[in-house]
Amino acid sequence: MNYKFLLAAITSAAICIGTNAKTNTSDKTSETATGITVSDVWTAYDAFNDVYLDRNKYIYKNTDRDHAAKGRDRGAAAIWCQPMYVDMAINAVEFAKKSGDKKREKEYSELLGKIIDGNIAHYLNFDFDDCDLNRGWFIYDDIQWWTITMARAYLATGNELYRTLAEKSFARVWYGSPRVGDTGSYADPEKGLGGGMFWQWQPIDAPRANEAGHGKMSCINFPTIVAAMLLHEAAPEDRTEDPNATWWGNKYGVFKRPNYETKERYLEMAKEIYDWSTKNLADTTTGMIHDSRHGDHAGGHPLIYNQGTYIGASALLYLNTGDERYLRNAMKGADYSINVMSAEHGMLPWAHNHRKPYDQGSLEQGVYPAIWVEYMKILTDECGQPQYRQFIVHNIEEGWKNRDRNRNICDGESWKPTTDENMIGSYAASSVPAMMLAIAPQVLVKGKK
Asked: 363 FRET partner, CA 20 to 30 A, in 17, 224, 323, 349?
């Protein structure tokens, strides 16, 4: 990423900023040791695709027991998790390029395009105003995860379609939909809604207006910051306000939705939501992120993916502004993830319901480490904090050691051997290859492993 502040940020990051991490996270000069090879990375990624990618539709399946990705509750992975698998393809192209593997760079570039096209085709041509429950869009964070990934895809490829879709999805979330009739995720303080981002609209097909006390989850607030920062980077410098915004009215008021924002406006949006979120969802002393806020009460278990998006939001704002409070927050979030949430096994947790491990909600939580590492790589690689890499490498090595060696996939509890007896969701199985692809360019290419 070519943030204007990157050079100054990395120079500033050479100054030691305090951290309480117990895994030598303050030692930024130590080399990251790993027994993982470049060949292992490609084996793991290809195995993930062999088991879970539906090559007829080029979207991903729910579990290793599914033969095809037909739709929601019919073999397809959750709509909000599909973009994480696109992120893996983006990282695979990047790693192939950095390692000088022209053949794989071409192969995975073509795969990336097919996966994006497959998802667009399956999910109603990315018509974000269609709330069909099978293949459509019915909750704000589902849409915003795609905003992030399409913005990443644009920055990686330069494909204008991807930026257009990212900006449309962001606007859909922020402002609401004339067709669905919701009032948007943004909890406008000037309307007495208290700030931040609402998680959902209800009922899905005939929504009421959100009220100040309704749920404002971390899984929409911090991704909104990340999305706004990526679109800030993607937006042209000379862009002016959209003259062709959509206007509509209903019993809740009159609404306006532009197709895109100016570069500066995206940054303003990110900062506003960040300030609200850190005040209302984060403990900036410990680095712990609450899952949600309802009215005056913040609660819910801390979850690794929320830690990840908090880290990413903080890191991206640091890179853009140079304000070291953002970097301190990112590091606190990382320290809490490692020292507290990963303390039991010394590895990233899988927060599934142990009594119902094969319920859909439990399965989907397996993707959390893949999300977390996507943002940790910004902290390690771009913010000058490589001391966290060794923890990630440890997770990779243990997971790879404990994989099902017949299929080269690993379940979410990667601290113990994976067998083919249990159903394995694509979500948990994504964690090891996702971590490999995210961290490999830094720990493998230079070392020529």
From this structure: 224
Tokens 């995210």 correspond to what residue? 438
Closest to 396 in 3D by CA, of 422, 377, 378: 377
pLDDT grade, residue 421 (50/70/90)?
confident
Residue 157 has a CB neighbour count (10 Å cut-off) of 17
188-200 pLDDT, tens digit per residue, is 999 999 999 999 9
pLDDT range class, residue 443, cuts 50, 70, 90: confident
- Max intra-chain CA distance, the chain: 63
386 prior amide bond cis, ω within 30: no
Question: How deeply is 215 buried, as exposed, middle or buried, from its count of CB atoms within 10 A (0-12, 13-18, 19+)?
Answer: middle
The closest of 335, 308, 307 to 26, measured between CA atoms, is 335
What's the token pair of residue 361?
């909600």
Q: Which value, to the nearest 10 degrees, does the dihedral of the CA atoms of residues 337, 342, 346, 352 take? A: -140
Distances (CA, A) of 234 to 2, 10, 140, 154, 159: 10, 21, 22, 8, 11
CB neighbourhood size of 97 (10 A): 15
- Please say whether the beta carbons of 432 and 399 come within 8 A: yes
Q: Where are the beta strands (DSSP E) in 36-153?
A: 53-54, 59-60
What integer pLDDT is reported at residue 3 of this predicted model?
41
Which DSSP symbol is given to 382? I
Strands (E), 198-265: 216-217, 246-250, 253-257
- 398: helix, strand or coil: helix
**Residue at 18: amino acid letter:** G
Helices (H) and strands (E) counted in the chain, each on its own, are 15, 9
How far, rounded to the nearest angstrom, does the alpha carbon of residue 374 sit from its chain's CA centroid?
Answer: 7
Exposure b/e, 107-132, CB count within 10 A at least 16 = b: ebbebbebbbebbbebbbebbbbbbe
What is the C-alpha to C-alpha distance for residues 182 and 5, in angstroms, rounded to an integer? 38
Q: Strands 292-294 and 297-299: what pairing? A: antiparallel
- Report which of 444, 448, 420 is spatially closest to residue 65, judged by C-alpha positions: 420
Residue-level pLDDT at 448: 56
**38-52 and 82-98 are packed helices; what angle lies between their axes, rounded to 10 degrees?**
150
CB 329 within 8 A of CB 282: yes
Note the helical H segments in 176-283.
Answer: 218-234, 263-280
Q: Phi/psi at 289 (nearest 5 deg)?
A: -110, 125
Q: What gap in Å lies between CA 316 and CA 310, rounded to an integer?
A: 10
